Each structure stands twice: as structure tokens, then as C-alpha cells.
User: Fold this.
Amino acid sequence: MSLLLVLAFILFAGGLILCLTKRNIILILIGIELILNASNLNLIHFSYLQNRSAEGQTLVLFIMVIAGAQAALALAIILRVYRQYGTILLDQLRTLKR
Amino acid sequence: MNLIDLATYLFTALAVLGVGLLLTLRNLIRATFAFFLVLFAVAGLFAINDGIMVSVAQIIIYVGGILLLTLFGVMLTHRRGQEVPAVKSHQEFISIGVGMVILGGSIFSFDQASFLQIKPISSPTEKVKAIGVYMLTDFIVIFELISVFLLIALIGAVFIAQQSKK
Assistant:
């Protein structure tokens, strides 16, 4: 069992716990990014073990682009929510319309 | 123990430390900097595992882009005197329990897999070339789709975040 796979699992579980326990939207977003990083670490490590091709690394680049787009969109939505409700704590967002 | 093993242990310890800080810190700005620590440690691990190009991309995209966006988000939505209330303890217990079960289960099941016994032989420079070839041959459709997707996402972000005129 390699150390990197254990780290990838720790990152995944950490991101999951972050998503579940925190109530600030920005911290939940960071949790999702941690989960994406865990998958990237897995892809890189298996690409290293397999050693013949760089398919895993190419996929990691694509995942990074997806993560960037997701962060940009999510932060735009967060700004909009803050302007509308004055808070970004999830349990205070109870209504759709105001 | 050679230098690469040492660096692997160091970066792994840094990443675990960052995740622990992220889970425990109450201050949002400090939590964001803990995230920064995790991203740098993961970039270092990419470099160790033959992913030099990916490591640089991680630093440019994550640390330069996503972290900066997150910091801006934190600063733009911060309100002085607004304290984050503590989570109810049973919810936190259940969530941490779920996370730990997933962590333990995946480590246990991967520990019994046999495909991890392969011995790696590294050739780092070949891989950077191979990434370029893959992007323009096998993955060309994904490459084009993802560039259009990124453009649409960025335009959409600008459209969502703009001030509505009244």
C-alpha cells in the first residue's frame, strides 16, 4: 500500500467531512476542490505505477480545467447570494425569493 | 532512505497537516491558507511522481487561480462581527463518522488489491512530450469540448456576478 494512495483517501475523506460539517459556502467549495485533488493524486500515482503512458496526466489537466470553471461559477453564485441575502451561511438561506 | 522518500514523507505530512487545519480552524482566512498548504504539498507530490508538467499546472491553476478567487470571495462576503455558529454536535459526529468509515473502508479494500505490487521505472521527460501528443490525437475531442466549456463557464460567471440595473 503506497503512502500516496493513503493520502488521497485522507484528502477525499477530509473534503467530504468539510462538505458535511461546515455551513459556510466557501468552505464547502474548498471541500469539493479537495475531493477533486484526491482524484488527481490517484490518477497521477497510477500513471506513475503503470509507467507506459501519460493518459492519467492528460486527464488530470482536464480535471483541473473543470475545477477552475466550477470555482469561477460557484464564486459568482456566492457573490449573487450574498448581495441578495446578506449572508453566506447555508442554514440561513431558507427562502428562494425575497 | 533516499531523498525522494524523504520529500514524499515531508509533503504527505504537510498535506495531512493542512487538511487537519482546514477541519479545525474557525477563521475563514486561516482556513483558506491551510488549503493553500494542501495545494502546494500535492503539487510537490505530483512532481515526485513524474508529473512535472501537471505539478506546474497545479501551481498555476489552483494556487494562482482558484485560491485567489476563493480569497476574493472570502473578502467580498465577509461581514464584521458575524460569527459562524458552532455546528450541533450530533450532526458533526455523524458526518465525521461517515468520513472515517469511507476512509477506513477504502484503505482496507485497496490494501488487498494486487495491482499495487508493480515496480515503477521512471522516465519523466518522455511524459511531457506524451501529454502534448495525447492532447492533439486521442483526446482532441475532449480538448476542444473543454475549451468551449471553459469559455461558456467564464462568460456565465461574468453574467451571473454582474450588478443588475434597476
Summary: Chain B has a mean pLDDT of 84. Chain B touches chain A through 80 residues (CB under 8 Å).
